[in-house]
DNA sequence: TCATTAGTTCAACACAATTTGAAATATAGT
DNA sequence: ACTATATTTCAAATTGTGTTGAACTAATGA
């Protein structure tokens, strides 16, 4: 992931509606969710508004879509999110592993595998 | 870190100038760097422009400043960056550890301690 | 105190992002 | 072919962000 991709991705998730969509899609997983269901889950926002944000997310490379009958199903692109986390950790790891400590603790908790504390 | 803090932080690093400043300050470490030195490192941008971006970063909670003689020294707030990485990893870890794989691999490489692959 | 250096603040402008509702498109069922 | 459903596209209005240079404030040293 280069600087421009990271900038676009950060811009994508710096909007409340879009951040909520991404988090929703990550939790839902590969199956994804239709534009309409996303709009409903977001409190019944106008369709055109959700469509606008879904398009932004798709252009940012964090989300993808497929048509399924009348619906268009959106889902998170996990490798892209993974790259974004890695981008955020990269610099810090070139000298300051302390930036990663909470992330690593979280990972250890999630996998059940203990991880040594950071120096 | 709550949603609003995350949104503000992502907005802060979704601008090229600000992202470069943050990365610079992370690499430099606790000692920090003066506003003027930052402006120079960024190719001699106008002081008022850099001041604007430094102020945005400070308001976002990612950076702090202290006066030292005539200079004002800016430095990264490492716990804030750590929280931001953790925020990005939180959802994914509630179900989809695959999002964290690259980050973990990077961490293993940086610390020299191998980490088991993600399920 | 005066001049110099280091940064910030301000107002004005330009440009980009967001929201809305109405109109258009695509698919499915009758 | 017709109707209903699902979603996108468009234009217009609004709001937010970033840039600039000039004026301002703070600290240092002669």
TrEMBL record, chains A, B:
CDD domains: HTH_ARSR. One of its GO terms (molecular function) is DNA-binding transcription factor activity. Keywords: DNA-binding, Transcription, Transcription regulation. The keyword Coiled coil does not apply. NCBIfam families: HTH_metalloreg (NF033788). Gene3D superfamilies: Winged helix-like DNA-binding domain superfamily/Winged helix DNA-binding domain. Residues 1-96 form the HTH arsR-type domain. It comes from Sphingobium scionense. The lineage of its organism: Bacteria, Pseudomonadati, Pseudomonadota, Alphaproteobacteria, Sphingomonadales. This is DNA-binding transcriptional ArsR family regulator. The keyword Cytoplasm does not apply.
